[in-house]
Structures are given as C-alpha cells and as structure tokens.
C-alpha cells in the first residue's frame, strides 16, 4: 500500500472517530432554595435521540472552579458519554463544598445538587429516574462533595466516587473558604465534625452504595 493511500485511510478513520462525539449543552437552572439561577454543563451522547433513558453522572468541580472546568480541561468527556452511553452533568458549586451552609443561607448547594438539580435534569432529559441510574463524583472539593452527597442521600444516588477528594476537612480551618461556610473551627467545631466525610461512614450499610476513590 502506498503512502498516500495509507494517509487517506488514516484521515478517513480519524474523521469517522470524531463524528461520534457527545454534544455539550450549557444550561441555566433555577434553585428555589437559593432563589437564583445556576449554570451547568450537560454532555449528551451522540445517540441521545434514540429514545432510551440514560444513566446520569453528576461531576463536581474543585475549589476555585466552576461549571465549565470539566469540559474545558477534559474535552474527552464528549467521547466518554458515547463509549459508556450516559449523560454527564457538571453543575456550578462555587466554593460551597456542596454543603447547606449553617452560616450563610445563600449557600445551599447540598439541596441544590441532590434535590433541585436532579429533579431539573430528570424533567428536561431522558434519564433513568431512580438511584440505580445516578452516580456522583468529583475532584478535590468535588471529591468531597461526591461522597458527602451520596452518603447523605443514598435514596438519590446509587454510586459515588472521589478523585483526590478532601475526606477530612478539619485540618484546614483557614483554607478554601471553609470557615465562611461552617463558621470558624474554634467557635463552631460541631459544624466541622458533622460535615467532614470521614465522620459520616456510619451512614453506610453493606452493599447499599457503590464507591470508588
């Protein structure tokens, strides 16, 4: 086979591979608990219009990030949704740590992600509408959020993961706006103790939640 024909075949294959890639929606959702609009990225598989219902992975960003981080830094998510036949939702979590802050009513991101966003996604997309079709994970602050939300809402999520997640926030009382969300550790240690993932394993029961980290 000559070089020009080989090159032609390779180019054709690359084009064919690139044709099948998920589509990316940037959506605006409304949070009744916080009374504001919040953006999210939704990545849909290429065969989304085929009529089936899809599992959803909620993918959370880290501290200092936003809803666009994952699709910007990992554009291969568009291929992943095709490979695994699922939907990925990347919400904006600000520097919330995905808590409902006991100190600031404008930060109710536990309620937003685990309830409001899930309901919005199920209402607007063809999803498997129970815990067997939902997973949640994230990076760093988002890794904390993935485990935190799944541990507390096992009726909503059937699987969870954490990538370099902050599973114990207590050693970092002056970092990442944590004191803004929970109050200072010195004055409100109870908020830190009950909201750190490492103290929440008592919520788990055998075989109830699939975990990876």
Protein architecture, described:
There is one protein chain. By secondary structure, the chain is of the alpha/beta class. It has one domain: Alpha/Beta hydrolase fold, catalytic domain (Rossmann fold), CATH 3.40.50.1820. It is 33% helix and 18% strand. It contains seven helices and seven strands; from the N terminus they run αβββααβαβαβααβ. The longest helix is centred in the first third of the chain and has 17 residues, at 3-19. Mean pLDDT is 91; it is low at 10-16.
List keywords for this structure.
213 residues, alpha/beta, Rossmann fold, 7-stranded mixed β-sheet, 7 strands, 33% helix, 18% strand
Fold blueprint:
Elements: H1 3-19, E1 23-31, E2 36-44, E3 56-60, H2 69-73, H3 77-84, E4 87-91, H4 109-124, E5 134-138, H5 141-152, E6 159-161, H6 178-182, H7 189-195, E7 210-212
Parallel strand pairs: 3-4, 3-5, 5-6, 6-7
Antiparallel strand pairs: 1-2, 2-4
Could you name the ranges where pLDDT drops below 50 across 5 or more consecutive residues? Answer: 10-16
How far apart the termini lie comes to 47 Å
Strand order of the main beta sheet, please? 1-2-4-3-5-6-7
Broad structural category? alpha/beta
CATH topology: Rossmann fold
- Work out the radius of gyration: 19 Å
CATH architecture: 3-Layer(aba) Sandwich
Strand content: 15-25%
Proportion of residues in helical segments: 25-40%
**What is the number of helices?**
7
Please identify which CATH superfamily we are dealing with: Alpha/Beta hydrolase fold, catalytic domain
**Total number of beta strands:** 7
Query: Major beta sheet, specifics?
Result: 7 strands, mixed
- Overall tally of domains: 1
Task: Report mean pLDDT, rounded to a whole number.
Answer: 91
User: So what's the CATH class?
Assistant: Alpha Beta
H/E series, N to C? HEEEHHEHEHEHHE
């Amino acid at each position: 086979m000559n070089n020009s024909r080989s090159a032609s075949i390779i180019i054709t294959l690359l084009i064919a591979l690139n044709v099948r890639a998920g589509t990316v929606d940037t959506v605006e959702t409304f949070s009744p608990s916080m009374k504001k609009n919040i953006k999210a990225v939704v990545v849909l598989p290429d065969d989304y219009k085929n009529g089936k219902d899809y599992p959803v992975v909620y993918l959370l960003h880290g501290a200092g990030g936003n809803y666009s981080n994952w699709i910007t830094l990992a554009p291969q998510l568009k291929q992943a949704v095709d490979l695994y036949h699922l939907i990925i939702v990347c919400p904006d979590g600000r520097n919330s740590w995905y808590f409902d802050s006991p100190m600031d009513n404008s930060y109710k991101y536990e309620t937003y992600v685990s309830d409001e966003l899930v309901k919005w996604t199920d209402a607007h997309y063809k999803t498997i509408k129970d815990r067997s079709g939902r997973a949640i994970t994230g990076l760093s602050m988002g890794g904390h959020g993935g485990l935190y939300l799944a541990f507390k809402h096992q009726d909503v999520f059937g699987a969870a993961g954490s990538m370099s997640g902050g599973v114990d926030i207590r050693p970092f009382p002056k970092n990442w706006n944590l004191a803004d969300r929970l109050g200072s550790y010195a004055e409100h240690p109870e908020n830190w103790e009950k909201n750190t993932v490492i103290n929440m394993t008592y919520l788990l029961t055998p075989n109830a939640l699939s975990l990876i980290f």
